[in-house]
Design goal:
With 570 residues, the protein is α+β, with helices and mostly antiparallel strands. 44% of the residues lie in helices and 11% in strands. The strands form two sheets. Strands 3, 4, 5, 6, 7, 8, 9, 10, 11 and 12 form a ten-stranded antiparallel β-sheet that branches. A two-stranded antiparallel ribbon has the order 1-2. Helix 13 packs antiparallel against helix 14. The longest helix is centred in the middle third of the chain and has 22 residues. The two termini are 47 Å apart. It is a peripheral membrane protein.
Length: 570
């Protein structure tokens, strides 16, 4: 163990065995504190944290969690971790006993089986990390993950799911662990756990892109040391620097923040590891430089993490002191990367090992959803059933992967709800995302996938002014008849050239706008779709945001039908 860690104060507490559940073996757990008692304010108890959770004071809670370096045997996590996970829950709370009903349904009994449990195919056997779980604890983790696989059949590749489950089990019983994982997997507001091979690749490419900008010297140093194998192979293991290589006390402190803030904490910690590795391996006489040149930089980074010279507090301080690395910026890079990888799959056939969700072919659930949508679709009038079906299959292949799993719901149609922008807002504004489909009086069919709630038109900036435009780079335009074409955000093309970190011009980020008089999608040197307050007339031009041609030849159009779909559960 490095000298910096040895210098930390070690506290062997007499109740060490009482600090963890019975399925944890605490004998290998080292308890570290970052400074002698009396130098800092006392650590917060859960009773002091709870009001922030109840009042939804997320920013204050974020700061508190970052600043309180609870030791690994602190009793606070038994209450804190479940409460943090529960705040990301989507939909109704699970009833008491739900998990055990699922266990009985899957295994026929609530007794732990003597034989090994068959894990779902989305798990990677090489990364089923148990940390300090006993043999029984490992069997409990296997069972939780198996029930999750049964309950969430659309998870196709999720190597981080098992180790996060195992980490949770160090501080809570089995049923509570399942509820926590179910909340993280189903979270809509923040991402915690990737669930397809495509998104897994997107995450490491996102880390590589943000490192080039926000840890530039460290990224260049890593690239130089990587030599012929290239940095991509190093970045592909980024999450295992954290989940597999960091000492357990460091990992637990990272997870304190992760369960509140989401995967962006992992991104920041990965960059902090690169920055610290750079600091300790720049000198050609250093042991880490020698390790990298002798055994390869991938091995050196892994070994560096296992022997992390910085304390948990120093590691997190390095991670959170990276300036200008906003959640919005990370999200923008992530979406660009996802869109580019998906387009490469379609155009060239990807080197990704394709999964049921990531290849964008309609799954059995998607086919059911498409069939349901075709029955409610007014714009199908005068089309053959086969033409309508093919049109919808095409549209489905353009949607973000996660959305294709949800059931489409008709929210608004001018045929039934009348031609009023007020009615449109009442029925649509709180749904996210939405799919707008327009049929003109000349029978052209086109529309837009809108990534953000229309309610955002009411949001104000820091100065109290209403924001003219809102939305994200997932928004796209499409034409379905007579031509079929998709027009994604122009920001996605920058990523194809490896320039995801570069900012596009403001005129190319004008996704959605609306007020009491009109709706606009796409701006900058023209409006891709504009509709009046009576939802009767509209116009379409080329715009900078999507670089689209006019979606109908005349440019001006009269609306025959407008239909808006939401997605149940999204």
């Amino acid at each position: 163990m490095p000298s910096a860690m040895l210098s930390a104060v070690l506290e062997e507490e007499p109740d060490l065995y009482e600090a963890f559940p019975p399925h944890v073996d605490p004998t290998g757990i080292t308890i570290l504190t970052d400074s002698p008692p009396g130098k800092k304010a006392p650590l917060k108890t859960y009773e002091e944290v709870q009001p922030l959770l109840q009042q939804g004071r997320k920013r204050d809670l974020k700061i508190l969690i970052r600043e309180n370096s609870w030791p690994i045997n602190s009793a606070v996590r038994a209450s804190l971790w479940p409460a943090l996970c529960k705040q990301h829950q989507h939909g109704k709370s699970m009833l008491d006993g739900f998990y055990w009903d699922m266990v009985t349904q899957v295994f026929g009994t609530v007794e732990l089986p003597d034989k090994p449990i068959m894990l779902p195919p989305f798990v990677e056997a090489t990364h089923c990390l148990g940390y300090h779980l006993t043999r029984k604890g490992r069997a409990v983790a296997d069972r939780v993950v198996s029930v999750l696989g049964y309950a969430c059949p659309d998870i196709t590749y999720s190597p981080s799911l098992y180790p996060i489950t195992a980490a949770l089990l160090h501080f809570m019983p089995e049923e509570e662990c399942y509820h926590c994982m179910a909340s993280l997997v189903a979270s809509k507001e923040k991402m915690f756990i990737t669930q397809t091979k495509l998104l897994n690749e997107v995450t490491w490419k996102t880390v590589m892109q943000i490192a080039k900008k926000h840890a530039k010297s460290a990224a260049q140093h890593l690239s130089r040391l990587s030599g012929a194998i290239g940095p991509e192979r190093i970045y592909a293991d980024w999450q295992w620097w954290i989940l597999a290589a960091l000492p357990f006390p460091h990992l637990v402190r990272v997870l304190d923040c992760f369960f509140h803030e989401g995967i962006k904490v992992f991104y920041r910690v990965a960059l902090a590891i690169l920055i610290l590795f750079h600091k300790h391996s720049t000198n050609q006489n250093s042991e880490w430089y020698a390790e990298a040149t002798k055994n390869g930089v991938d091995h050196a980074v892994d070994k560096f993490c296992r022997n992390m010279p910085a304390s948990p507090t120093k590691l997190l301080r390095t991670a959170f002191s990276i300036r200008a690395l906003s959640s919005q910026y990370i999200s923008r890079v992530f979406i660009k990367t996802e869109m580019t990888l998906k387009s490469k799959q379609v155009i060239t056939g990807s080197r990704l090992v394709r999964s049921r969700s990531s290849d964008n072919l309609p799954t059995s659930q998607s086919q059911v959803n498409i069939q349901m949508m075709s029955h409610t679709l007014t714009i199908r009038e005068r089309m053959s059933e086969e033409t309508c079906k093919q049109m919808l299959f095409t549209l489905w292949s353009w949607l973000p992967v996660r959305i294709t799993m949800y059931q489409p719901v008709l929210l608004y149609t001018t045929e039934e709800h009348g031609c009023s922008l007020t009615t449109f807002y009442v029925r649509v504004e709180h749904h996210e995302p939405t799919l707008l489909m327009i049929k003109t009086c000349n029978n052209e069919v086109f529309g837009a996938y809108c990534s953000t709630r229309w309610f955002e038109r009411n949001q104000k900036d820091e100065r109290g002014n209403r924001q003219a435009y809102f939305g994200t780079g997932e928004t796209f335009l499409f034409s379905l008849y007579p031509e079929r074409a998709k027009y994604p955000w122009v920001g996605c093309s920058a990523n194809a050239d490896g320039k995801a970190e570069e900012r596009v011009a403001h005129g190319s980020e004008l996704f959605m706008a609306a007020d009491s008089k009109m709706i606009t999608i796409g701006g900058g040197d023209g409006q891709a779709i504009w509709m009046d307050e009576n939802i009767r007339f509209g116009k379409t031009d080329r715009c900078s945001t999507f670089n689209n041609p006019p979606l109908c030849p005349s440019g001006d159009f009269e609306i025959r039908v407008l239909e808006v779909y939401g997605f149940s559960g999204a």
